[in-house]
Amino acid sequence: MKKLLLILLFIANLAQAERSSFDARWKFQLGDVPGAEASTFNDADWRALDIPHDWSIEGEYRKGNPMGGTGGYLPAGIGWYRKTIQVPNDWKGKHVEIAFDGVYMNSTVWANGQELGTRPYGWSSFAYDISRAVDTADSITIAVRVDNDKQPSARWYTGSGIYAHTWIDVKDKVHLARDGVFVRTQANTVNLDAEVRNTTDETRAMDVNVAIVDPSGKTVTSQRNSVIVAPHSNQFSRFELMAPNHLRWDLDSPHLYDAVVTLEADGQTVDMSSTRFGFRDIEWRPATGMWLNGKNVKLQGVCNHQDAGALGAAVPDKILRFRIEQLKAMGCNAIRTAHHPQTPVFYDICDEVGMLVMDEIFDGWKKKAQHDYGRYFFDQWWQRDLSDWMQRDRNHPSVVIWSLGNETGGPIAADLVALCHQLDPTRPVTSGHSGSQWMDVFGVNGSSEKVGWFENLNSDRVFIGTENTHTWQVRGYYRTNTWYRDGGPDVNEAVHEIPDLTKTEVFTHDWIDDADRGHRKQVFNSSYDNATVRTTARHNIEQLRDIPQFAGSFRWTGHDYIGEASYVHGGWPFRAFMGGAIDLANFEKDLFYLYQSQWTETPMVHILPHWTHPTIQEGTPIPVWVYSNCAEVELLVDGKSLGKQRPGTRWNEMQCEWMIPWTPGELRAIGYRGGKKVAQTMIRTADAPSKFTLSVDGEPLTSVGKDIVQVRVTTTDADGETYPYGENRTFFKVIGPGRIRALDNGSPVDVEPHHKADSRIAFYGLTRAYVEATGQPGDIALVASGILGEKKQITSSEVSIETQVLALRGNIPSLDVEVFYTTNGETPTPDSTPYTDAFSVPLGTTVKALVMVDGKPLQALHERFAVDEGFVWNEPSGTTSTSRPGSEQAEDATLNGAKIKSQGQGFHGKGFIDFGQSRGGYAEWYQENDGDVRQAKLVIRYSGKHPKQPGRLIQLSVNDQVVKERLLLPNAANWGRDWRTVDVPIRLQRGANTIRLTTVENGGMYIDEISID
C-alpha cells in the first residue's frame, strides 16, 4: 500500500513525467501505400484496430503463399499503420518518445511526415524522439511502414506488423535514459548504475536518489548522489546499498523488489524510474551446473517461439501468462527464447511466476533463411540490436544466461561475447552450438542427444543441451511401433534404440490414406514417447537428473508452433511443427504429464492411451501407460485390480505399464503415497459423439473493460465421456459486447482461417475459441452449436444436434432455443423438421440445421457424413514409396527452369523433375542439420540417357559454395523408367543448409530425389 501511495503521489504532482499506452485506435492498411507517411494523408477508409496486431495470422493459409512451409503458408507483404492524436499542452517543452516493444520487420516510422528511423530486426524494442514534432504542432500523426515482403524472412512463422505494445513516454529535458538503470545484486548488496541524460544546451546539476522498496511497499534503504551533466551528454551515477533481511527471488518464492530512482533539480523532482529486480545469487560450476541461492538447480527447460497458434505473434498478455504458467505446472523451470528475444511483458511474467530464462537474440550471424536478417542486416546492425536487447532485459532476475546464436558460426562470435561481457559482466554467455570456443557455457543442440555424447564430453565448462531433446507427437494419436525421423539404429549409429511396444502395430486409424500422402514425412507421430529423432523424452529426463555435468536441457519445444512444416513434416497441408508438450491451441499432450510426473511433487496420475478403439478387435493387447509421481500406482479394469506398480527411475521404467486385452469398459488409476490414496483418474470407452461441454481454461473475463478468454469445447457421448476422435464442427455466436477473436483446434493440418470465422472442426475431440470483450459494459455469453455423429459411421449412424450456452461475463441469458433440420440438402427453415432427439442418416447425407433463439435465426449449421469424410480407419500399409530415410523429393524442391512430371515408372513420391532444355535451371532443397558439422554423403537419384555422351553434367552447390563444377550423372538405360544413383561427399554445417543442382548444358537428367547419408 505504501508503495502504491508513493507512485500515485508522484503521478499526481508530476504529470509531466509519464508513460501511457499508445495501443488504441490505430488505422491499418495492408499493401504499400505511397505517401501514407504524410500527416495530410486521408486514411478515413483504413481499418481501425488496436495494437498489438499481426496481419499474417488474419490471412488465409494457401499453398502458394510466399511464406511457404517455413512460415506455415500464411501471407506476408507490406503494411501501414497510422495514428493521429492531439498534443496536450503539458507535453510542450518536454522530451517525448514513442516506443515500440516489437515490430516485424523492417519498420520505418514517421512523425508528421518527418522520418524518424528504420529498424530492420523484427525482434528488437526501440524508441524515437518526437519532441520536435510535439513542440511545433497541435496534433501529431505517427505513420509506420512494415516491410515483411521478402520471404521466407525466417525459418519459422514470425507474424507481420506491430505485434507488441506501443507507448508514449513524456519526460523532462533532463531525465533518466531509456533502459539506463542497471541493477545487480550479491547477497544483500545492491549495485546500481543510473544513466542521466541531458538534452538541453546547458550544464545541469542534478541529485539522484535511489530507494529500495520491498515487496510490501516498504523502503528498506536509500541513497543520494549528485552529478553534473554536460549539455547533450549522458552521465552515470553509481550506487552501492545494503538491504538487511532481504527476501530472495527463487523458483518457488519469486520475491520482487523495486529500485525507485528519482532525479531532482533544485529540490524539484523531474523524473522517476521504478525498476523491478530480485535478490538472487547464481554460480555456474563446470562439474555441477547452476547454483541458485546455494542450491544446485537443473534447468528443466523448453524452447519456445513467439507465436501462439491462432493468435499469431500478437499474443495477448493474458494468454502469454497462461502459457508460461502452464509450462510451470508441467514442471518446467526455464524457457529458451528461441531464436529471438520475446516481448518485454514475457520477462515481466517470468519474473513474477519464478521462471528462469535463457535469453537468446539471434538465429544466424549470416544467412539461414532466404531473406532473413542474417543475410541483409546482421553485419551493420548486430551491435545496436544486441546492445538494446541486453540493456532492456538485464535487470530481470528471471534472465540467468544470454544466448547469442543458433547453429551458426564465424569469428564474429568473439566480438559478440566481448560486447555481452561489457554490457553485463554478471551473467554467462552461451549459444546453440555456435562459435562454441568463445562461449562461457558450452551449449549444444540435437547432437547432444546422440549415443556416447556424455562419455566424450570435456569437463572444462558448464554444459547445457540447448535443444535437447527432439521428440514429436500429435495430441490424441498413438502408434505402438517406434518411429525415427532419420531411420533407426540400424542405419544411424547415433540413435538410441527404443524397443517397439508390440510386435505388430495395434492402432489402425490415421489422418489420411497412404495413397493420398503428398510426402513420406506427412505422418502424425505417436504420443507414447516413441516418435523421435535420436532418443526419448524419458531418456533425456534420466540423463539430466543423473549426470552432474548436465546443467540443463531445453526440449524442442514447449508449445507447438506455426511454420517449419515443409522440411520437417513434408509440407502442405502441414502448417506447423508438432514437437511441443502442448499443442497449438494450448491443449496438453500426454507428454505434458510425463514431465509433470518427473518434475513436480503434487500427487498426479495420468492414463494413456484413451480407451475408445472402435476398429480394434476385442482381446487385442494394448499397452496402457500410467504417468505418476506417486510411490505406487494401482490400475483397475472395470473395477478389478491388476495390482500395483512402482514407477521406476530408469528411462524405460518411468511409466507404469500393463498389457491389457482390449474390451470396452473403464480404466481407473490410483496413486498411493505411504499406503494412502492421494490421486486418481478414470477413463471409459465412449459411445458415438452426441454432446459437447464448454469450459474456460485459465482466468475468466474481467468484469469490465477489454479482455480475452479461452474456451474449451470437448466432444462427448451421451453420458459425458470424452469422445477422443471427435471431429464435428462447432459453430459459435457471441451474445453481448464481445466477439470471436480466433478459433483453433491444435491440428497441424487444419488450414482453415482462424479469423473472421464462426466455426471450427474438432481435432481429437477438442476445439478452442478465443473470445474478446470489446470494452462496452454488459453481460457476455457464448452460444456453441453443432451436428454430432461419427463422420464415417464406424459404429453408429445416429446424429445429434447440440446447443450450449456459456456465461463468460455476468449471468447466462434466458434464451428460447429451437432447432430445425433437413437431410435432403435443402436449407432449413422454421417449417423444417424440429429437432427433438437423435436420428439416423445413411452415409452420404449432409445434415443442415437452423438454430432459432427467441424466434429469430441465430446460427446455420451443416455436417456431412460419408466415407470420404474425416479420419481414416484402415490399417496403415506403409509409406507412399520406397524412398530412403532422409530422402527429399525433387518435386518438393524450389525449382527454376524445371517442370514436375509423373509419366514414368519406378520413381519415388509423386513425381520427378525435368529440366527440359534449360541451361542454368536448378532445383534447391533446404536441409536442417541439428547435429554437429559433419561430412556426409549426398545421394542423387536420377534417370536419363545422352545419345552421344557418357552422361549429363550438372553443378552441385552446398550453401552457395560450388562443390562440383561439373558432376557427371552417367547414362541410365532410358528416361523415366531406369533410375540410378550417384554419391557425392559434401560437408553440412550446423543448422540451415541449402543444396542446389544446376544445369550447365542445355538440360539435364530427370531428378527423382536426393538423400543424405
Brief sketch in words of this structure:
The protein has 1013 residues and is mainly β. It is 10% helix and 40% strand.
- End-to-end distance, in Å? 65 Å
Query: Judging from the principal axes of the Cα atoms, what is the shape?
Result: globular
Helix content: under 10%
Q: Give unreliable regions as ranges.
A: 1-16, 877-881
Strand order within the widest beta sheet: 25-24-23-22-21-30-27-26
Strand content: 35-45%
Number of strands: 63
Task: Give an overview in words.
The chain has 1013 residues and is mainly beta. Strands 25-24-23-22-21-30-27-26 form an 8-stranded parallel β-sheet, covered by helices on one side. It has a 6-stranded antiparallel β-sheet with strand order 3-2-4-9-6-7, with no helix packed on it. It is globular and about 85 Å long.
Secondary structure layout plus pairing:
Blueprint: H1 2-13, E1 18-21, E2 26-30, E3 47-49, E4 77-86, E5 95-100, E6 107-111, E7 114-119, E8 126-129, H2 131-136, E9 139-148, E10 166-171, E11 174-186, E12 189-198, E13 204-213, E14 219-229, E15 233-242, E16 257-265, E17 268-277, E18 282-285, E19 289-292, E20 295-297, E21 299-304, H3 317-330, E22 334-337, H4 344-353, E23 356-360, H5 373-376, H6 378-393, E24 399-406, H7 412-423, E25 429-432, E26 442-444, E27 463-465, E28 483-484, E29 531-532, H8 537-546, E30 550-556, E31 561-562, H9 566-569, E32 576-577, H10 590-599, E33 605-608, E34 621-628, E35 632-637, E36 640-645, E37 656-661, E38 666-673, E39 676-684, E40 691-697, E41 706-716, E42 729-735, E43 738-744, E44 759-761, E45 766-774, E46 780-788, E47 798-809, E48 817-822, E49 833-834, E50 839-840, E51 845-853, E52 856-865, E53 887-889, E54 894-896, E55 899-901, E56 912-914, E57 922-929, E58 934-943, E59 951-958, E60 961-970, E61 980-988, E62 991-999, E63 1006-1012
Parallel strand pairs: 21-22, 21-30, 22-23, 23-24, 24-25, 26-27, 27-30, 28-29
Antiparallel strand pairs: 1-10, 2-3, 2-4, 4-9, 5-8, 5-10, 6-7, 6-9, 11-12, 12-15, 13-14, 13-16, 16-17, 18-19, 19-20, 31-32, 33-34, 34-37, 35-36, 35-38, 38-39, 40-41, 41-45, 42-44, 42-46, 43-45, 46-47, 47-50, 48-49, 48-51, 51-52, 53-63, 54-57, 55-56, 57-62, 58-61, 58-63, 59-60, 59-62
Helix pairs in contact: 3-4, 6-7
